[in-house]
Structures are given as structure tokens and as C-alpha cells.
From TrEMBL:
It comes from Amycolatopsis alkalitolerans. Transmembrane segments: none annotated. Residues 622-733 form the Molybdopterin dinucleotide-binding domain. Residues 6-46 form the Molybdopterin oxidoreductase N-terminal domain. Keywords: Metal-binding, Molybdenum, Oxidoreductase, Periplasm. This is Molybdopterin oxidoreductase. GO terms for molecular function: electron transfer activity; molybdenum ion binding; molybdopterin cofactor binding; oxidoreductase activity. GO terms for cellular component: outer membrane-bounded periplasmic space. PANTHER family: TRIMETHYLAMINE-N-OXIDE REDUCTASE (PTHR43742), TRIMETHYLAMINE-N-OXIDE REDUCTASE 2 (PTHR43742:SF10). GO terms for biological process: anaerobic respiration. Coiled coil: none annotated. SUPFAM superfamilies: ADC-like, Formate dehydrogenase/DMSO reductase, domains 1-3. PROSITE patterns: MOLYBDOPTERIN_PROK_3 (PS00932). It holds the Pfam family Molydop_binding.
Length: 777
């Protein structure tokens, strides 16, 4: 079989089609640790939930656009491409003429697929910009809180998130690694855009071989590979800030903090120290205080602080820790603690953020951007912090705080999503359903009948990467991969580019959108412009034709040894941080001046509402950790073999401690109902002693499958609160939620992941059959 090169967010591979339409996948030969997730691709092209033809919700066809509580509850009617695009173009015109471009929400957050040209959001944003602009979204669900607080503390989030100390530097120099949230190996196979060589599992193995002292601070034992031999600190979730403060308190009271470093490189330490000592509130943040909050022994906290002061210590905090209420605090407190240790900028010392959150954190590939498509300029200034989508739809004209400003939600009439699944990724999905009933029209471009597609008025079937040509490379990738077409498009599916080109043609902006190029001509054009930019820097890469024929190209260079803020340390006057003081701001006057009670001027312990120590835990006594799934990327390919193999009793697996299970009469393999006052879901019980009692773990991404307010499949976002991290960042807080669990003794209904929704197949004026030619391309 002729296998062709391709790549994905979980890595490069080659693929071919078996006679039965299944995909044969082989990992890239140079990948030392291919992702198990590749196994999800096998049956993906012809899965029963592929969308075969453009479809419109019956109520929209019959009653026209407008807010409609029936959205998400009605059948779809298949229409031809011409009818779908004609009707949609007319609706775009109406919205623009009656309400203006800002009434279009095109934030369209989501991971879509790898590939630089056919990147769904990029294509959509380019189209919407050509149409006169749209309300956009800012930041990410991944690190939307850190992205706002880090600039105040160290001047830039990109520096920390993209140029953090590299793994070889850590592996060779660190004596003690203190990992808040661990370094979960399950996550490191993922890098946006995909990488060809997964280096991180090898670095984790070397940590173990070198015998680096590792402190795993996490409710889950699985958050670092066992071969690392960590000491496990099974902290109570959401209390890491208290632990960090107590470690800092121990350093001060024992005189172990580095005064010279604090004087030279930091500002606002004194105020923070007064807080640590309890000067204002009479509460010293000592180990005994933290022990009551974290449920870790005080002696262990003191001992850890002493070990940290005595060794070359690296503190890392996973992104999950900022995806909770007051998520700014653990990140800021970790930086303050690292500053007190005085090792920031020294090899193997200091702090980092997102080791084990993403494959590119600490990776060693060259740091240059591959060829990419320009999105143009958005003339509309309106935006929302990304996780405020439901608030925006439910409260047009409402005001909210954001990073020192007061903003107003626009009145959105049309929502267009391509390459994301908000009914997987957003919190409080029952509330989101109400929010999605408000706009006049909802458009979703998708290969699959996801929950979001089922909530749309217009469902436009998109191809998947194996059905088109592209190229791809992730951040710090070692290769640029030519993505050859492996299969014909499924049924009537079209590339996102072709869908939008067809719409652009009807709106008179086709030339601006396509610039008269075919996709292949775009690939050659983008590649050759990139090649020329490289040549200007003295780097020579082959021509497009040679690259395409070879199927890949090895990117020159590597970035093996890096230490975050080494330049700043070596000369803080010539290389100041871009903060107001030019230094690390342990207290930020600017943040303090905003006057937010949920994000004061220095790191502080603020009690969240969803944690085991508060009043809500009396009603819902288990803290659910909704982390990233080991068996897939988010909700993608949930129907795939690897994802399905992880299901228990046909539902997503929920892990709980045998003691918590026994108290509820739950046995391994039981279907359970997980609930709180926002909603409920079913899940399959897995008993495990590798998590602390009182904590349960249900990863994200099981396709939301609602029967009234119950998700019968196990999506935790039916339970999570739609609350921001704080008024500063408005970041996502989906990682934690309080729940109760009971055995589900009724016969659970089968999940719909295996089947499409109700669709009426016949339709007048359906002229096209199969994957016809695209008007205007
Ligand atoms: N409770 C809780 N919720 C969370 C999180 C959490 O920790 N806890 N984590 C959050 C995080 S960090 C993230 S990043 C989000 C992820 O949320 P999303 O990025 O929305 O999740 P995905 O499942 O990757 O959705 C991508 C969608 O794009 C579709 N797609 C793939 N290729 C193409 C294409 O070529 N064209 C088109 N049109 N569509 C395509 C896929 O089928 C899929 O439905 O979830 C967030 N949600
Ligand atoms: N296989 C796979 N990998 C992925 C993804 C995926 O969907 N699948 N998604 C990718 C994306 S988009 C992102 S943004 C990253 C996200 O990266 P992260 O947000 O860092 O990943 P999570 O798995 O959600 O959380 C990491 C660990 O934090 C721990 N944790 C949770 N709460 C607490 C707490 O209060 N205290 C402490 N100390 N630990 C806690 C959990 O045990 C959890 O396993 O992952 C990426 N990697
Ligand atoms: Mo993410």
C-alpha cells in the first residue's frame, strides 16, 4: 500500500486507505514516542457521524431566523450546497445591513485540525474580515488566566509559555523538581499543529535515570510517570496557593530567602512578606495554617521548603492550576516563591509553566514559524475574553470587568463556528444551550455531527485533513510535513476554504478571499513566500515542488539549552522585563489599582466556591477534576478505537477512590450518575487508589449527549460552573467542580455517538450529488 505523509495535533504519520475504507496509519519513523492517539484515525473517515450533506434546521427553514428555544431539539433537512450557501449569504447580508458587522460572532474557538492552510478558524476569520469584520474572542481556554496575569508580573506571557527553560537544561541541572499538577505524560503528545518527534517522554525518563528529586504535588498519582519515583504530595484540589504561601513563609521565618535577588530583580516583596507574616490580617501563612487548607502535614511542608532552599530547584505549575477560580494566584505565587529562592535565570532553577501541559513546553526544536495564511485585518474592535461566550449571548449590553477596563457585551445575531466544539469545551452546558437559543442564526462547519453541529441552524459538512492537501508543523517541530491527500472527500463534504469561497462568491468578496488561487496554488504561494523570508535570513530550504515530492523537510537548527530569564538575570538594567518596574512584580501596583477583590495586588489565598473546604461541599462532597483526556484530543474522534476502548459501560470512565465508592455502594464497572444543582451526567465507574479520597476524575471530551438536563455519555461540562477565574482575566474555570455520585440502577439509554441526528433526506432544488465542483473556486 502506498502510504502518504500527513500530520496531526498528536504527531506526524503516514497513512493509506484499506480496501474497506479504513485508514492504515504508521507513525513517523523518526518519532521516538508516537502518540497512542493515532489509533483513533482508523475508522474516522466513514464514521456514521460524518456529516454527509449541508443541512438546515427545520424550524429555521419554516419560521426563518430569530431566537428559538427549539434550536437543538429539531430535525434537520438536507439541502444542496447551492441552497445552503444562497440562504446563508442572504442571512449574512441581512445581519450586516440591519445590525452591523459587530452582530456577527466569529470567535469560533477550537482546535480544528493540523495543517496551516486549511485551518478552519484562520479561513473563517479571513472570510469574515473580507466581509467587514466580526466580534472576536481573545485568549484561550488553555491558559486564558495566565495570559492576562503574567504580563503584569513578568511583562510577557509568551516568554514564559513559549521560551521557558528547555528539558535538557532541567534534566542536567535541576536537583529538585517541584511539580504542581505534576508533569502528566498523557498530555505531552499534543502540540498545536503537531510535531514529528515527541521528545518529552524521553526527557521524563532521563529525569528518573538521573535520580532527580521530584515532588509531585497533585491529587492524582498518575500525573507523573512512575519511573520518575516522585514523592507524592496528594494535595486537596484548589489549595496550591496556600501551600506555596506556606513554603514562602517558611523561607522567610528561617531566613532562607535570597534578599539580594529580591532587592535587585523584584519589586513589591516587602508588602508580600507582610502578608505572609500576617501583619495585616493577623493570619501568618505558616505551615500549620496551610496544612489545615491543603490537608498535607505541616512537617512535610516545612521539610520541602528547606529542601528547596538547599538545592537547585525548579518549580513548575501546570496550566490546569489556572483553569480554576482565582487561577491567577498559584501562578503568581509560584513566581514569588521562585524569586525568594533566588534561582530565576540560573540553569535548572527558577520556574516554568505548562511542563506536561503541552508537548512544546521545554521542547528543543527550532523556534520558527512555518508558512501561514494571512487573516487580514478585522475592522470591528469588539471582542470578548473567550470563556464569556454564554454571558455575551445571554446579556447583550451587560457590562463586565476585564484587565482594568469595563466592557460591554455586544448584541450578537449570528454565530459562525468552524473548527471548534463549544458544546464540549464550555462550562455549564445547559446554560450554554439557553444562550445558543438567543441569536437569530447559528452556523457550524464540521466534519462530524458533534453536539455543537446539532445546536446549529446551518450545518455545513467539512472535509478532514486526509481528504485534502496541506502542510503542517507545530511549534518547535523538527520538520515541515507535506500533507498529501489520502482519500476522496466524504459524501458532499467540502474544505472549509471551499465552503467560505462559495459564500464569498455570493457576497461579492470572492477575489479578496481567494486572491484567485486554488488550494494547491495557495500552498505553493505560501511556501515560496516563507522560503524567501528564510533565504533573507540566510537559511535555504528546497523549492515547493521538491518539498512536496519528498513529503517533508527537516527544519534546520535546534534549541537545546535555554534558561528562562537568563538575560534578565545577567543584566537587569540592559535587559529589563517589560513590566512597569522592569522587574518581577511580586506586588503589582497596576493590578492593585484595579481594586478587584478576586485578584488583589500580590499573590494571596482566596477561597473558591468549588472546593472541598467550603460550604458547598456539604451538599456536593466530591471534587471532580475535569482534566484532559488520555485517549483523545478533547472531543475529537471520540468515536475512534482508542477513545472507545477507554469507555466503561459505554460511558466515559470516572475514577474514584474505593473508599468513596464503598460509601455509595458503587462497584467497579457500574454506571453512575454524577450530579449537582446545574446538571448531571452518567459515567462508568473505575475504582483507583491512585487518587486521594474526596476527589474524582472525569476527563473532558465525551460527546455531550443530553436527554433533558442529563448527559447520558459523561461530559463533565454539564456540571461545571460558568464562572470566570476573576474579574482580571475572565479566564475559564472548567477544571474543578463539586459533585455527588450515586449508582444508576435504571437501564441507561444508549449514547448517540454512534449515530447522526434525525435528518430529512429529500429536498427540493437539490441539484448536486457527491463532492461536486465548488462555485467560485
Ligand atoms: N471542564 C473543562 N472544560 C474544558 C477544559 C478543561 O480543562 N475542563 N479544557 C479546555 C481547553 S484547554 C480547550 S483547548 C478546549 C478544547 O475545545 P475545542 O478545541 O473546541 O475541542 P475539540 O474537540 O478539539 O474541537 C475541535 C472541533 O473541530 C472539528 N474539526 C477538526 N478538523 C476540522 C476541520 O478541518 N474543519 C472543521 N470545520 N472542523 C474541524 C472537530 O471535529 C472538533 O469537533 O476545551 C476546554 N474545556
Ligand atoms: N491526551 C491529551 N493531551 C492534551 C490534550 C488532550 O485533550 N488530550 N489537550 C491539550 C490542551 S488544549 C491543553 S490546554 C493542555 C492542558 O494542560 P493541563 O491543563 O495542564 O492538563 P490537565 O490534564 O487538564 O491537568 C493536568 C493535571 O493537573 C492536575 N490538577 C488538577 N487540579 C489540580 C489542583 O488543584 N492542584 C494540583 N496540584 N493539581 C491539579 C490534574 O490531576 C491533572 O491531571 O493539554 C494538552 N494535552
Ligand atoms: Mo487547551
Amino acid at each position: 500500500m502506498n502510504l502518504r505523509p500527513s500530520t496531526s495535533h498528536w504527531g506526524a504519520f503516514s497513512a493509506g486507505l484499506e480496501a474497506d475504507g479504513r485508514v492504515r496509519v504508521e507513525p513517523h519513523p523518526e518519532d521516538p514516542a508516537p502518540a497512542p492517539l493515532l489509533g483513533n484515525l482508523t475508522g474516522s473517515l466513514r464514521h456514521p457521524t460524518r456529516i454527509a450533506a449541508p443541512a438546515i434546521r427545520r424550524g429555521w427553514l419554516e419560521r426563518g431566523p430569530g431566537p428559538d428555544p427549539a434550536r437543538g431539539h429539531e430535525e434537520f433537512v438536507e439541502v444542496g450546497w447551492d441552497e445552503a450557501l444562497d440562504r446563508l449569504a442572504a442571512e449574512f447580508r441581512r445581519i450586516r445591513d440591519e445590525h452591523g458587522n459587530h452582530a456577527i460572532f466569529g470567535g469560533s474557538y477550537g482546535w480544528a485540525s493540523a495543517g496551516r492552510f486549511h485551518h478552519a478558524q484562520g479561513q473563517l476569520h479571513r472570510f469574515l474580515n473580507a466581509f467587514g469584520g466580526f466580534t472576536s474572542s481573545r485568549n484561550t481556554y488553555s491558559y486564558g488566566t495566565s495570559a492576562v496575569v503574567l504580563p503584569h508580573v513578568v511583562g510577557s506571557s509568551a516568554e514564559v509559555l513559549r521560551n521557558g527553560s528547555s528539558w535538557p537544561t532541567i534534566v542536567e541541572n535541576t536537583d529538585l523538581l517541584v511539580a504542581f499538577g505534576g508533569v502528566p505524560e498523557k498530555n505531552v503528545f499534543i502540540t498545536p499543529g503537531g510535531v514529528t518527534r515527541h521528545h518529552t517522554p524521553g526527557f521524563l525518563a532521563r529525569l528518573g535515570e538521573r535520580g532527580v528529586d521530584v515532588a509531585l504535588v497533585s491529587p492524582l498519582r498518575a500525573d507523573i510517570p512512575a519511573a520518575v519515583h516522585p514523592r507524592w504530595y496528594p494535595i486537596r484540589p484548589a489549595t496550591d496557593t496556600a501551600l506555596l504561601l506556606a513554603l514562602a513563609h517558611t523561607l522567610v521565618t528561617e531566613g532562607l530567602h535570597d534578599r539580594a535577588f529580591l532587592d535587585r530583580y523584584c519589586t513589591g516583596y516587602e508588602e508580600f512578606e507582610r502578608y505572609l507574616l500576617g501583619a495585616g490580617d493577623g493570619v501568618p501563612k505558616d505551615a500549620a495554617w496551610a496544612s489545615a487548607i491543603t490537608e498535607l502535614p505541616a512537617a512535610d511542608i516545612v521539610a520541602l521548603a528547606r529542601r528547596m532552599a538547599a538545592a537547585r530547584t525548579f518549580i513548575t505549575v501546570t496550566w490546569s492550576l489556572q483553569r480554576i477560580e482565582h487561577g491567577e494566584q498559584p501562578v503568581w505565587a509560584a513566581i514569588a516563591l521562585a524569586a525568594m529562592l533566588g534561582q530565576i535565570g540560573l540553569p535548572g532553577g527558577g520556574f516554568g509553566h505548562g511542563y506536561g501541559s503541552m508537548g512544546d513546553t521545554g521542547d528543543i526544536g527550532p523556534d520558527f514559524r512555518g508558512p501561514h495564511l494571512s487573516q487580514g485585518i478585522n475592522p470591528v474592535q469588539e471582542f470578548i475574553p473567550v470563556a464569556r461566550i454564554a454571558d455575551m449571548l445571554l446579556d447583550p449590553g451587560g457590562s463586565y470587568d476585564y484587565d482594568g477596563t469595563v466592557r460591554t457585551y455586544p448584541d450578537i445575531r449570528l454565530v459562525h463556528w468552524a473548527g471548534g466544539n463549544p458544546f464540549h469545551h464550555h462550562q455549564d452546558l445547559n446554560r450554554l444551550r439557553t444562550a445558543f437559543s438567543r441569536p437569530d442564526t447559528v452556523v457550524v462547519q464540521e466534519p462530524y455531527w458533534t453536539a455543537s453541529a446539532r445546536q446549529a441552524d446551518f450545518v455545513l459538512p467539512a472535509t478532514v485533513p486526509l481528504e485534502r492537501e496541506d502542510f503542517g508543523s507545530g511549534r518547535r517541530d523538527t520538520h515541515l510535513v507535506a500533507m498529501h491527500q489520502v482519500a476522496e472527500p466524504f459524501a458532499q463534504a467540502r474544505d472549509d476554504h471551499a465552503i467560505l469561497a462559495g459564500l464569498a462568491a455570493r457576497l461579492g468578496i470572492e477575489e479578496r478571499f481567494t486572491e484567485g488561487r486554488s488550494p494547491r496554488a495557495w500552498l505553493a504561494h505560501l511556501y515560496e513566500s516563507w522560503r524567501k523570508r528564510l533565504l533573507d535570513k540566510g537559511i535555504s530550504v528546497p523549492s515547493f515542488v521538491d518539498f512536496w515530492t519528498a513529503g517533508e523537510l527537516r527544519l534546520p537548527g535546534a534549541d537545546e539549552y535555554r534558561t528562562l530569564f537568563a538575560d534578565f538575570r545577567s543584566d537587569p538594567v540592559r535587559n529589563p522585563l517589560p513590566t512597569p518596574s522592569g522587574r518581577i512584580e511580586i506586588t503589582s501596583r497596576r493590578v492593585r489599582s484595579f481594586g478587584y477583590p478576586d485578584c488583589p495586588g500580590h499573590p494571596a489565598w482566596l477561597e473558591p466556591s468549588e472546593w472541598l473546604g467550603g460550604p458547598r461541599a456539604e451538599r456536593f462532597p466530591l471534587l471532580l477534576i475535569a482534566n484532559q483526556p488520555e485517549t483523545r484530543l478533547h472531543s475529537q474522534l471520540d468515536g475512534g478505537a482508542v477513545s472507545q476502548a477507554g469507555k466503561v459501560a459505554g460511558r466515559e470512565a470516572i475514577r474514584l477512590h474505593p473508599e468513596d465508592a464503598r460509601a455509595r455502594g458503587i462497584a467497579d464497572g457500574d454506571v453512575v450518575r454524577v450530579f449537582n444543582d446545574r446538571g448531571a451526567c452518567l459515567a462508568g465507574a473505575v475504582l483507583s487508589t491512585r487518587l486521594r479520597t474526596g476527589v474524582v476524575q472525569l476527563p473532558t471530551g465525551a460527546w455531550f449527549d443530553p436527554v433533558d438536563s442529563l448527559c447520558i455519555h459523561g461530559n463533565p461540562n454539564v456540571l461545571t460552573a460558568d464562572l470566570p477565574a476573576s474579574r482580571l482575566s475572565q479566564g475559564c474555570t472548567g477544571q474543578h467542580v463539586l459533585v455527588e455520585i450515586e449508582r444508576y440502577d435504571r437501564t441507561p439509554p444508549p449514547v448517540t455517538i454512534g449515530a447522526p441526528p434525525r435528518i430529512e433526506k429529500v429536498r427540493r432544488r437539490c441539484r448536486e450529488h457527491g463532492a461536486g465542483s465548488v462555485p467560485g473556486t
